[in-house]
Amino acid sequence: MRTIITETTVFEYNELSGAAKENALNIFWDINVDSQYWFEYWEEDAQRINMEIISHDGLYETKMKFLGTAEETAELILKEHGNCCDSYKAAKRFLNTSEEEYSCDDYLKDIQEYYRLTIESDYEYLTSKEAIEEAIESSDYEFTEKGELI
To answer: In terms of C-beta density within 10 A (0-12 exposed, 13-18 middle, 19 or more buried), how is residue 79 classed?
Structure first.
């Protein structure tokens, strides 16, 4: 039997070469979205406005349902969401327009589309180079010269 002892130089992310950083980014591409935690924010946000996210496929569709009335949800959106949000604008329109001009179904479709686009935008940011680097650096990970995690 024999024992081989090796010595490894350890690097922080900001000390890596460009190629090693790319390798580290490839390893950690999903660091911010590898659990359902990031999506829980959106589920909780929907609950705050008396809605439930039934399904979200990430690219094409978000299905939601009202947990109370559409009017209650609209009132909650006006309180919870900023007046620059499309959800706020849809809620305001729904409350100030007749059913013939802007139906409950149209309102629900607009809210679902708002959530789909917002969740998609959040996911795109969380999987961006900038967000991945922030997560790596804040976690104090250490790497080999090739960008492999120690």
So the answer is: exposed
Contacts of 59 (CB under 8 A, 6+ apart): 120
- pLDDT per residue over 43-93, tens digit each? 999 999 999 999 887 667 889 999 999 999 999 999 999 999 999 999 999
Q: What's phi and psi for 53, nearest 5 deg?
A: -85, 115
| pTM across the whole model | 0.83
State the Rg of the chain over Cα: 22
Using DSSP's 3-state secondary structure scheme, residue 110 falls into helix
How far apart, in whole angstroms, are the C-alpha atoms of residue 29 and residue 38?
A: 14
- B/e letters for 42-56, b = 16+ CB within 10 Å, e = fewer, are beebbeebbbebeeb
Q: What is the pLDDT of residues 80-121, one digit of tens each?
A: 999 999 999 999 999 999 989 999 999 999 999 999 999 999
